[in-house]
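Hi C.,

You asked whether I'd gotten around to modeling the 774-residue construct. I have! Everything is below, sequence then structure, no commentary in between.
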Amino acid sequence: MGEPREPRLTGLFRAVVSRRWLIVVAYALALVPAVYFALRVKQDNAIDRLIVESDPDYITAKQFEKVFGSGEYVVLLAEAPDPFAPDVLARFDRLEHELQTVPRIEENSVLTVYRRARAGFSATPDEARRLREFATGTDLFRKQGMIGDHFLVAGVLIHGDAEQRMEALDAIDRVLAPVEQSPAPFTALRKVGQPYVNRLLDHETSTTGYRYFALFGLFIVILNLSLYRSFRALIAFLICLGVSLALTVGWIGMTGGVFTIVSSLVPMTVLITCMATLVYIHSRFVEQPEGVTVDEHQVFALANKFTACTASVFATAVGFAALAVSKIRPIREMGIWVAVGLTFTWIVVFTLFPSLQKILSTPTQQERRISGGWFIRLTEGLPEMTYRFRWPLVLASLALCAAGGIALFGLPGRISPMPFETSALEYINHKSQLYKDTKQLEQVTAGLSLTEVWLQSPKFGTVTDPAVVRGLDHFQRALEKDPEIGTVIGLPTMMRTLRYIGGQGDTLPTDEDALEKETNNLETLLPREPMLARFIEPKTLAETHLVVVTRTNDYSGYAEIEQLIRRRWDEAVKRDPALAVFTLRTSGLAPLQAKISHHLVPTLMESFILSIVIIYAAFLVVFRSGPARLMAMIPSLFAILVMFLVMRLSHMHLNPATILVASTVLGASENDQIHFFFHFLERRKDGTTEQSLRHSLVIAGRAILFATLINAGGFLAFALAELPPIRDFGILTAVAFVLSMLADFTALIGALWIVFRAAPDRVVAARSEPVGGK
């Protein structure tokens, strides 16, 4: 065995091994702050965390909250054959009184409004009859979704920061628990809302991560012992994995990062990449030849694998770093965090791992033969087999790639592009009670998608101008008539409700003097009427808003709703010129969700193309062969495009988790191609194509197999997740890794035969023999 080509690397790794105890102590000291900050990382799956803070819609949402306050809504749906029966109302009344004891919430229902109008309520038959007449004597309450033929609704607005909202939600649950256990006389009590979705996502993403890590840890133990048959090697692997994970999550905590639904993929991606790199290095280490000391061979193995491992980790890191272009905040953060974590991993595998190898005296094949010899025997026939079927293998791969591209982007006029979803509700288990209750509520109400129509004026007191109030009423009624819109609630709604309570009817006065009298009272009513305060900016009286409720949550649907709102606004301004002083802006969950939806596919394409460019740039440095640079991408692209075909056939959707599969697979699977081509070209200098292929299969083939098993098995642990996006991500990623490996050993080798215009040595020898064997 000759000396490595990198004498500086040889000297570097000799220094690393000689200072092994100093390196171990340094990592032990670094672990203290790393673990401290790692434990401080919190979980938050709020919808506004899906948008980067510099996004205009995010900025608008935060500005809106400063004016009108922030909060999250919970909707309680009490179902009964007759919602106005005395016993039903009595139970609903008790429930509301208990809810009013919960701090930081505002509760509202038709019964709440009735109590204010009649100075109380008692569930007698006569009072129940009067409440029925009160609630059904106008269309106000039905339009607001407070009542239906078989239900009563209580809306609960929760104030405070994320922690306070969760405390309030827990208190609400304690109030509802007895009714949920024994709902009679209700037939059912359903509780839905974004806070419940967020809490479920927080719980699932924070607690089920331990299950993933436990399964992955068990997988590592089994694979390591079956491959290397050494507890000492296993300990070295586990320590390096733990240190890489602690440093990564610690850095996230130190920089103030917050985990979201996709963040559980960060530690798993770092662990899997670290494990795969360790397999490449250790597999080379255990192949100690006769007549070479362990110390000399360890330095050689580290130097020999340094370029390939560095290039592969770099390729994975930049593949994820390319996600920084995303306007979807968790994806952007994940890309950066994984890139940083892989930087830590690269340092760990070339400093801590060699130190542990030496300290623990991990055995080589001279002491204990590793498994996997069957794979070497299996690949003996691969070169000739792939040569024989080279054209079918390559053409079939190209056909499948084309099918995958059509599955993702569609075919104009024939096949629509792959659908994508951003509704947080779709991220939870579809068999959960929360999911079922929300779907039931959407069927009986106008929907749960809220768009805030924010009207701003530079003039003081504009909102209380009678002409403005009249115009707002016309604008609201025009919106309500459109079938695409379910409910509209604004200042006119509140004024009509107050008039109805006062026995003045449920419409605004048509007489100008009477309307002016009504608007003059608004300033005095604001401090006493919370309903009004929610719709008028109290300091300048120059801003108001309307809540538009729809079932829309996709980008095209929201774009149509926004266009409709602006058309109706333009018509309202022409009819009521007093409205011209206002500037209309839209805010709320609907725009944010639509923005996420709009950026999903661009995120996929931008980050994916950027990853390809950067990875190919790395190949320019690693490989001198032009064909090698191009063909190294084949297995990854094949795996990714076929994976999208699998998604389409299995009716999976693009979402903030599954959209990451392409970048994950591209970054991680390129490791295999880098190691394959590195050793292929290593032998290609003085050998034939077949000899180079056999050399690469012997040196890197087994490591590629086990690295693929690590990648696929690690991500397959996510298949047990309760959250559909995470479950789909795990399944799809595992499938893609296996597809990439199959392409490594079939289509890639077949393409090599074609590109190099080569043939197996036996075929070449037969061609060169004289006719007749003479």
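If it helps when you're writing up: Residues 1-5 have pLDDT under 50 and may be disordered.

Thanks,
B.
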